[in-house]
Amino acid sequence: MVLKIFLSILFLLIICLFAVVVANIFLPAVKKQILQNTDLFFSPLEKNYIFRTVDNNVQSSESRAVVLNDPQKEKVPRLEYNGARNCALIANTYGSLTENEFDCIGFGDCAVACPQGAIIIKNGTAAVTNECCGCGSCVSACPKGLIALVPKKQKTIQYKNSDDGEHIVEIPRKKDFKFWRNWYKILS
């Protein structure tokens, strides 16, 4: 009987010692490794969203920005360009890097201008996330005029996205990484 009590206490001590080792040695080492190796856990799109800086002083409006281009659409390159990544420079020099003059250049002048960090580059095309406050900074930053402010409740928009005419397109609701960003904040 005494042996059973002794073994039970010894077992509990071993479990407590293991918990202390894990909590004080193993978890901080893993946490430090996570912070140093964020490339292993996040795609560039997620990383830009999680580590972005947001200006909380921007007034919110009843509008939101919409990029008049589809990030899922296949772009046919007209030329290969390896110079400075600046949309205004490309628009003034070449007009477009693709066969379609209405394609987004995709170098992110609008993303740089956005104080909320609500614009991401997806498949070489700008895309607006749900973080958009409708300030309009991106509208003036796009040299091709491919960003428009629309009411938040508007479901479709009509725009010209090729030489064959105008199209009515449903405004997609962009998914964001709010869930993962919140989990990352919990870890850190």
Mean of the pLDDT scores?
77
Which strand order spans the largest sheet, edge to edge or round the barrel?
1-4
Beta-strand percent range: 15-25%
Radius of gyration: 25 Å
Name the helix and strand elements from N-terminus to C-terminus, one letter apiece.
HHEHHEEHEEEH
**What class, by secondary structure content?**
alpha+beta
Terminal residue distance: 47 Å
Fraction of residues in H or I helices? 25-40%
Low-confidence runs = none
* Major sheet details: 2 strands, antiparallel
Question: What's the count of strands?
Answer: 6
What spatial form do the alpha-carbon principal axes imply?
A: elongated
Number of helices: 6
What does this structure look like?
This protein is α+β, with helices and mostly antiparallel strands. 37% of the residues lie in helices and 16% in strands. It contains six helices and six strands. The strands form three sheets. It has a two-stranded antiparallel sheet with strand order 1-4. It has a two-stranded antiparallel ribbon with strand order 2-3. The longest helix has 35 residues, at 2-36.
Notable features of this structure?
188 residues; alpha+beta; two-stranded antiparallel ribbon; two-stranded antiparallel sheet; 6 helices
Produce the secondary structure layout:
Layout: H1 2-36, H2 44-50, E1 63-67, H3 87-93, H4 109-113, E2 119-122, E3 125-128, H5 137-141, E4 147-151, E5 156-162, E6 165-170, H6 178-187
Antiparallel strand pairs: 1-4, 2-3, 5-6
